[in-house]
Amino acid sequence: MYKIVIVDDEAIVSRGLSEKVNWQEMNCTVCATASNGLEGKEVIEKIRPDIVITDIKMPGMNGLELAEYIRGQYPDIITILLSGYSDFNFARTAMRHQVFDYLLKPIEIADLKACVLKAIDKLQNHAPVIVDAERENLDILESGMIMNLIVNGNRELENTAKKMKECGIKVTSGQIVVFELYEASDPSYAEYASIYQFAVNNIVTETYRLFDMNTTIVNFEGKSVVVVKTDPGIQQIIAQRRVLEATTLCMENVSTYLKKQVSVGIGSSFRGMEQICDSFQQALKMLDIQLFWGIHKPEPLFESAIAQVNTPMDPRLTESILEGNYEEAKFYWDVFASNIKAGRNKSAALNSCLDFLIGLSKHVPQGEAKNQITQAITAITGQRTFEEYRSVITRIMIRVCDEVNRRKEVERARSLSDRIILFLDTHYSDASLNLQYIADTFHVSASHVSRLFKKEKGINFNEYLTVLRVEKAKELLNSSQRLTVQEIANNVGFMDGKYFGQVFKKYYGITPSEYKENKTSIKCS
Questions:
Q1: DSSP string for 171-207
Q2: Which residues are CB-contacts of 84 (< 8 A; sequence separation ≥ 6)?
Q3: Could you read off the pLDDT of 308-328 as tens digits, one per residue?
Q4: What average pLDDT does the segment 365-371 reach?
Q5: CATH superfamily of 133-293
Q6: Which residue, 293, 285, 248, is CA-closest to 268?
Q7: Does the chain have fewer CB atoms within 10 Å around its N or its C terminus?
Q8: Residue 174's beta-bridge partner residues?
């Protein structure tokens, strides 16, 4: 009887296929099931089945990786893939020359039987494929040596060259091309990343083969590093054009079969192993530029001779945000972003966006929106694409506009004294804040503000502001922040640290420095 192994992380699928299919009538028996690729690998090594039926999406080792392992170690075993609708097409593309057949979930018993019978017919009528083990080992050795060259540069060049010569491996001329699929906006991408990379590697290998180009592919930090080997007898400019043409078709094929846009960087031509690392570094640099700006066509590395200059921003962008007018702000932001993109300078783009966020933060009062701006300033430096920059800043614009409009609604509903107190609570750190400043801000006379405070708060305006500032200073002294007395004074609206110390002592009986040393014994006098 033919031995069957079923690999699927859904127990109900494994059990259903084992029990609901009449395997005996096909002269088959299910010898074992496994819940993921790693378990399946162990089972296959022990049982050596004739047919393996495996799902694609599984934890640990997915079905494509298991199929690749089977192809390399047990080429006589037939592999049948089970695939969900969402990953069926690209799985078929990635592995169309490496697995026997595909079945789309939910599985029809009749389709499964037909597929298994077709596999048995192949087992009966065809001799098993013999893999050249020596060639397989050489491919693995070559990949390892290429990885060593791109990671360590030329530090171990002499030793690597010696090993390659001993193994008869020749890499005399060519170019490094680096491919990467990166979709920050797709939450499912990370889950399928290894499968997508596997698919890209197969598409790229087949496409370059159409141009009679041999390749070696190394997976490096989520990227497919392709050593495209060219004939050293061909003029370099002609070889470069052929690599560019083949790479363009690679990108088109990835887009056609995977419905994804791949970014690519093409390195300089190398003549000899000592130039491979330089070609790789140049390809990485080009990939970084392509990925950042969302360019999906291969281009030569562009070195701008223009000095880095931050893109000027229309001040109406900040003004419209602080007025809570998002639609107007979006218009000015789109213009600003377009001008940044036109400059094609990644460093200038980052600095322009940071300048905008820092400038906006200075005008936003303490609160959740200001905290989010601070977080965005840190987060944006870790983003890989300009579209991610735009997304971060758009969220900040919406958040600030929402907070401004909520404050407006609250202020409209408050009495004048409540509105002034709310204003003081968020602007006390402004050293220029005084009675006349408040009067001008709320369009009333200074004497009116003074009478209002005396009547409703029982103290005059200056006394209220001073008490507010020293209370805020005490909160900073009690916090975990390591601030000097002068820094605390500046944070609560005192320019002169010495005068701040005198005022603080008037209310708390000791200086700020003494308070820091003996927090538990302090009592407000």
A1: --EEEEEEEE---TT-TTHHHHHHHHHHHHHHHHHHH
A2: 56, 57, 104, 105
A3: 567 889 999 999 999 999 999
A4: 89
A5: Reverse transcriptase/Diguanylate cyclase domain (3.30.70.270)
A6: 285
A7: C
A8: 229, 270
